[in-house]
Amino acid sequence: MIRYRFKTNSVSDPRPIVDMALIKMPWWCTGFSCTTNEYATIVCYLPEGEPLYKYWDDAFDVEAENVSEIKYSDRFPKPEWCE
């Protein structure tokens, strides 16, 4: 799977445009630009081959990392739909 970290222009509603519960993969909004409030920063996991832009069509400054497992923490808790 791939762990993404990216920015989206959808500050007022940074949720994905396709419900991630359908694929049981987590995502989190980790914050907003400090000075301009022009973007939100998102972290999400997707299966390999699943396109990020299907979920966030305005994603930019994308960082991607191949990972073998999802790492949950206090900052990135497991969403209910991933049960």
Question: What does this molecule look like?
Answer:
The chain has 83 residues and is mostly beta strands. It has one domain (2-69). It has no helices and four strands. The protein has strands spanning 2-8, 27-32, 40-46, 60-66. A four-stranded antiparallel β-sheet has the order 2-3-1-4, with no helix packed on it. β2 (27-32) and β3 form a beta hairpin.
Radius of gyration (Å): 12 Å
**Helix content class:** under 10%
Please describe the biggest sheet, giving its number of strands, its sense, and whether it closes into a barrel. Answer: 4 strands, antiparallel
- Give the count of helical stretches: 0
Mean pLDDT, nearest integer? 90
Structural class category? mainly beta
Q: What amount of the residues lies in strands? A: 25-35%
Morphology: globular
The count of strands amounts to 4
Defining traits:
0% helix; 83 residues; single chain; four-stranded antiparallel sheet
Secondary structure topology:
Elements: E1 2-8, E2 27-32, E3 40-46, E4 60-66
What's this entry about, in short?
0% of the residues lie in helices and 33% in strands. It is mainly beta and 83 residues long. It is globular, with a radius of gyration of 12 Å.
